[in-house]
Each structure stands twice: as C-alpha cells, then as structure tokens.
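Honest question from a wet-lab person: if I give you the sequences of every part of a complex, can you actually get the arrangement of the whole thing, not just the pieces? Trying it with mine:
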Amino acid sequence: QKEVEQDPGPLSVPEGAIVSLNCTYSNSAFQYFMWYRQYSRKGPELLMYTYSSGNKEDGRFTAQVDKSSKYISLFIRDSQPSDSATYLCASSLSSNDYKLSFGAGTTVTVRA
Amino acid sequence: ETGVTQTPRHLVMGMTNKKSLKCEQHLGHNAMYWYKQSAKKPLELMFVYNFKEQTENNSVPSRFSPECPNSSHLFLHLHTLQPEDSALYLCASSQEGRPYEQYFGPGTRLTVT
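Yes, you can. This is the full assembly:
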C-alpha cells in the first residue's frame, strides 16, 4: 500500500470554478502535510504546508487536514488558467524527517 | 543564478555509457536531495545529503552513485543504466529544520537507449 494516495485526475474546470484536490494517507504518525505545484517542464514548488490538523488559507488556496480520517485537501477558489498544473500532496513525520512521501499528482486544466 | 539549477536539462545515453548529472543550489541550504520522477508515479526519493553527509539511500541500485563535495553542489554519476531508468531526475534542497519545504530544480530528462 502506498503511504499517500492521490486522486489521479485529470481534472478540467472552467475559469472561475472551485478546484478540489484530495489525498489520503496511511501512516497516522504523519505530522506535516504539503501541497506542491508542478508546471510542465519545471520542478515542483511548495504551495503550502500544514502542521497537524486544521485549515490554512493563502489567498485563493486553502489546505485542509483531517487526521481522524487521514484526509488531505486543497481548494483553489476563482481558478485561473495560470493554475493549470500538476498538484502533488506530500506528508512527513516531523520537522527532522527528510523523507517526504508524495502522491502521484493530479493534473488540473483550467479552461479560459 | 538563483534557486536550484540542474545540468544538463536533457540527456540521452546508451546502456554502456557513463554520464553525470549536476545540481547546484544558491539558497544557502544545508540539505540536498535526488529524486526520480516517472509518469503517473509518486516522486521517489533516491538520496539525501545533510551537511555533505549522506543520510538516506533509498535502496537505489549501485549504477547510480551520488557525490556531494560541498553543501552547494550535488552530482549523480550514472553508469550501465537500464531503459527503465529513463525518467525525470530532480534535485532539491532545503534549509535546516525545514525539510518539508524543499526547493526543486527543473530536472534532467534522461533517456536510456
């Protein structure tokens, strides 16, 4: 069983729609939860990270972690064509854990 | 140069060749990583170096050999690769105490023929 499972997509939405991305994880000891964005022909870049459960908001992006159900979500409000990318969720055990467990990524296309 | 750079961006090599991938980070970070990214698969961590010391070797075949001469440079030496080693190889770095915040280079697209 993979430690982090991610909806494979692809996902295509019209501009302005809310994008909802989800992951589940199996290791209840995970404490850090990250979302990375990867544009075509680029490396991933960190969008947001969350420690433990709860919500975190940054502009149009909201990350949610529900540790009771081992569920990670990313919401993108008012989506733009520039949000078209592959989104990777990741988890780790602690602030000293160099081994991040990544999902396989969901490719999102926002249509103008 | 800013961020994390990788060279070459594209590499085609035969199974009997020897080549090296280079990564350089200009962020003052102390940890550097090599990942393998294959289509529709999660990023696979290959090696981690923290303050030039290797702290992770994720059961990577010996045909991949990392080298970290200082905290800014990381190499991946390749020899007698297999076609299934064709993938995007990503380098990343992070600062002390924040391994969850990794900065990635653009990757080297490797094709083994």
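Two things worth pointing out. The CA atoms of residues 36 and 45 of chain A lie 5 Å apart. DSSP finds no helices and eleven strands in chain A.
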